[in-house]
């Protein structure tokens, strides 16, 4: 369990965590890999969400997932990219987050994920939580904690 004071201060910041869906670059599961390759190259993000045409979250796509399909015995072959769809190569085992946020779970997941996908109860894509925004919230917490709560070392209390 994380300390209640920490949880409270982080929760106050939670409206600022989310990058809303309309600001998040994405591709559709039916898009061809040549299109997805262009999108990923242009947006310069390592990995982006994959949606269906009704805004449901389907998976994640990285450049490496695309370039992997280009590797052949005779070097790199991009000619097949138009014949493969995003849904054929995307990552589907993705941890998902829903509101209300469970701050402890989010912090655990963010150890290994640069961003977390937020969905609603219908699996519609709501946005992402990024490590960057989370680190800003933790920085705020570090500055606020002893202004708002009495923080004393246990050793001092014993002395
Ligand atoms: P950051 O913590 O801001 O570096 O973001 C971590 C990761 O989240 C990036 O590498 C991207 O994979 C993803 N990301 C952040 N912002 C966006 C965005 N606007 N659209 C798509 N993906 C994003």
UniProtKB/TrEMBL annotation:
Domain called CBS: residue spans: 86-139
Alphabetical keyword list: CBS domain
PANTHER family named in the record: CBS DOMAIN-CONTAINING PROTEIN, CBS DOMAIN-CONTAINING PROTEIN CBSX3, MITOCHONDRIAL
Name of protein: CBS domain-containing protein
InterPro entries: CBS_CbpB, CBS_dom, CBS_dom_sf, Diverse_CBS-Domain
Domain of life of the native organism: Bacteria
Organism of origin: Ligilactobacillus ruminis
Pfam families on file: CBS
């Amino acid at each position: 369990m994380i300390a209640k004071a920490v949880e409270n201060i982080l929760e106050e910041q939670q409206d600022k965590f989310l990058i809303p869906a309309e600001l998040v670059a994405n591709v559709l599961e039916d898009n061809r890999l040549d299109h997805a390759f262009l999108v990923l190259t242009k947006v310069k993000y390592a990995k982006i969400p994959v949606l269906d045409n009704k805004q449901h979250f389907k998976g994640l796509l990285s450049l490496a997932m695309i370039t992997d399909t280009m590797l052949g015995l005779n070097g790199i072959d991009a000619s097949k990219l138009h014949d493969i769809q995003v849904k054929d190569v995307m990552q589907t085992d993705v941890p998902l987050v829903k509101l209300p946020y469970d701050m402890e779970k989010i912090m655990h997941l963010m150890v290994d994920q640069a961003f977390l996908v937020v969905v609603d109860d219908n699996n519609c894509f709501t946005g992402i939580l990024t490590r960057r925004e989370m680190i800003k919230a933790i920085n705020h917490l570090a500055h606020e904690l002893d202004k708002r709560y009495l923080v004393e070392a246990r050793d001092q209390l014993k002395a």
